[in-house]
# Entry
Amino acid sequence: MKKHVVLYKTLSAPLMQRLQERADVTLIERLDAHGLDQLRAALPQAQGLLGASLKLDAQWLDLAPKLEAIASVSVGIDNYDLDYLTARHILLTNTPDVLTETTADTGFALILASARRVVELAIRVRNGQWQKNIGPEHFGTDVHGKTLGIIGMGRIGEALAQRGHFGFGMPVIYHSHSPKPAVEARFGARYRSLKALLQEADFICLTLPLTAETQGLIGAEQFALMRTDSIFINISRGKVVDEAALIHALQQGQIRGAGLDVFEREPLDPASPLLTLDNVVATPHIGSATIETREAMARCAVDNLLAALDGQRPPNLVNPSAFDQGR
Ligand code: DGY
# Structure
């Protein structure tokens, strides 16, 4: 008998067909109020869930007594309570690897856009304000040859280091749980304490996952350590940063600017002070948002879910003990 899958994300036609060949599928197209009602109604039958961008805590999952597996279309797993899932032997999978290069591209887009003031100056052109050659008040700052500081040297951190080192001749410094000799050998990267990195880097890039340990890692004390000509880039999660402290640092000129793809609350409130600052480039959580990568992520999630529902160990299992204990 086919298993029942609840999709809370639209899939391409070939992926939908593949899933429907093996499962009965309920599709919730949008997570608006109506969609959330549909989800609530569908959960009691769900054996598999596939989607992203929804905090699936016990309040939701208690409604799904038959649930065997969740395939998250994301690398980040901060929307899930791993202890809860494992206690219920619910497998959680994510989509690492397929989005690494694209997310690093986003990081570099933000570095370049912030340093060269691309968005601010493009808006001036669009507004008809380009009436003479620009002067020093609108000059940006170089990227090539500057020191790239990466906090969190996982897959995406490495892809950022690769771009900085080989593409832009940037000395790379990094901070992570422990030094990574292979990264140091490939990119000439040097390990620093968090404090030393914040004091030294021209570009400070966050690529850490959100965990209890990283939440609020960068606050007033950390912004005060940064150089006044540094640029802060966040492509990880908004909650790794104390956003009020970031706004204060930008307003007070403690740092030169920021390129932000993630925020404490998403979507970002249109009234956020961040949007009043010319030296902020804000994008709507587009880290992995390309046609190719989002399709690859969805394919990976479908593969994960089908394997899990077949009783196999899925390729990108986040909580192996749920699998081991559930056998
Ligand atoms: C991820 O995959 O975690 C991206 O940030 C999208 O949430």
About this structure: The CA atoms of residues 261 and 286 lie 7 Å apart. The mean pLDDT is 97. The chain has two domains: 3-96+291-326, 100-282. The first strand starts at residue 3 and ends at 7.
